[in-house]
Amino acid sequence: MLFRFIYSLGMYLLSPVILYRLAWRGLRYREYLERWPERFGYFPSPGFQDSIWIHAVSMGEVNAAAPLIEALMRRFQGHRFVVTTVTPTGSARVLKLFGDRVFHVYLPYDLNGPVRRFLDRVRPKLAVIMETEIWPNLILTCRARNIPIVVANARLSDRSLRGYRPVWPLARQAIRATSFVAAQSPQDAERLLRLGARPERLVVAGNIKYDMAVPAGLAQSGKMLREYFGRERPVWIAASTHEGEELPVLEAQLAVLKRFPDALLLLVPRHPERFRPAAQLARQLGLQVRTRSDDNLAEFDTQCFVVDTLGELLLFYAASDVAFVAGSFDKIGGHNVLEPAALGKPVLVGPHTFNFEEVTDNLLAAGAAERVQDAQALGAAVVRLLCEDKRREAMGIAALAAVERERGAVDRNLESIERALSGVG
Questions:
Q1: What pLDDT, on the 0 to 100 scale, is given for residue 424?
Q2: What are the tens digits of pLDDT across the range 19-47?
């Protein structure tokens, strides 16, 4: 109780800082200035009870959760579904994927009052938290209300485990309050045990991201887009870049252009506030730039096409020859390498992939991916793959096979959820 009191007091004292950060982000991305009451548990009650509530932090987690949510909807027909996120990009993705089939709000801050107001309104029968979002007040309040909690597709890196040290007793109390934890890999399971998860409530279920469904018609749409770009033209993509990564990616494109003067880079910043700065930086380096929002499509003289829209990444993966998955040059931990792999694309990553350690290692071991250390190595790797058609094709085939071997995690996560609802554990 003492640790929880200290944690709650700290959260309340930090509230002004949190709001300041929210407002600061809103200056660059106005959606952060909207719907503030939801972040404190104030929103109109949807008027139902015994809902099934799924929390996914942002767009990547929503995409990963999509096959599980669809499976839950098929399994528990007649129940209302609530999906929460914490970012505008996640919110937009929920609405695009599910529309009015779910009730969507932002997850409130982990303060006792907002948490109680949120639960009073959505009245969940079950809580499913994607990956590892350990919010002590939220989890412990659910336990006090006898709401079973499943941490689905759970992952925990060594870095994240170390990050819990200042609140270790409370994090341990929270993870032990869950009904089941379905870990992505044995390595994740071992770290979750060290955090405090109960062995009898911990299973290794695999990674739901392997179960992603490629949308019908995507391959054909990608082929048509590629025809527009130029069938014989080399096209590579740098996906989900962050502020410190756009310069090395653009420097790599300058190196690629020396070997392939007609090469096209598809640059996809991770966050909307990076859309305009990324395009400006590319122009400053002398590249011919067009953007998705202003120009719709790249022309033959375009050297860098900035995808400054949301929800279209898979389409542009499908139109590419080689995919670099960013978030891995800086110490961000990488992003989802399985999206290009599921489309049969050879994958390049930087040195920092701890957020996707198991899946990245799997692709590397299968010969479906390569690791590069810097801009120079990235440019050289792209040139090499664009020159070697057979090798590029072999990596794509290996990627598809690696994804296919690991499918089935949705069913295993669903089994844990059913056990939690039935009171097992």
A1: 57
A2: 778 778 777 777 777 898 999 999 999 99
Q: Strand 124-130 to strand 103-106: parallel, antiparallel, or no bridges (unpaired)?
A: unpaired
Neighbours of 193 (CB within 10 A): 16
Contact 412, 211 (CB under 8 A): no
> Which pTM value belongs to this model?
0.82
Helices (H) and strands (E) in the chain, counts: 18, 14
Q: How many residues does the chain have?
A: 425
Q: What is the CATH topology of the domain spanning 218-405?
A: Rossmann fold (3.40.50)
What is the pLDDT confidence band of residue 159, given thresholds at 50, 70 and 90?
A: confident
Say which residues have a Cβ less than 8 Å from residue 191's Cβ, sequence separation at least 6: 156, 157, 158, 161
In the chain, the N- to C-terminal Cα span, in Å, equals 24
Res 279: pLDDT: 97
Provide the 10 A C-beta neighbour count for residue 255.
16
In this structure, the number of other CB atoms found within 10 A of the CB of residue 1 comes to: 6
Instruction: Return the CATH fold of 21-206+408-422.
Output: Rossmann fold (3.40.50)
Do the beta carbons of residue 248 and residue 332 sit within 8 Å?
no
The question of whether 339 is a catalytic residue gets the answer no
Q: Are 174 and 136 in contact (CB under 8 A)?
A: yes
The answer to whether the 21-206+408-422 and 218-405 domains have the same CATH topology is yes
DSSP-H helix ranges across 123-245: 136-144, 158-163, 168-176, 186-195, 218-229
DSSP state of 205: -
Domain residue ranges of the chain, discontinuous segments joined by +? 21-206+408-422, 218-405
Most confident of 82-96, 164-178, 251-265: 251-265
State how far the Cα of 377 lies from the Cα of 395, in Å rounded to an integer: 18
Spatial separation of the C-alpha atoms in residues 336 and 58, rounded to whole Å:
13
Catalytic residue, from 61, 131, 246, 370: name it: 61
- Structure confidence at residue 212 (pLDDT): 85
Listed in sequence order, the residues at least 6 apart from 163 whose beta carbon sits closer than 8 Å to its beta carbon are none
Enumerate the H helices of 196-270 as residue ranges: 218-229, 246-259
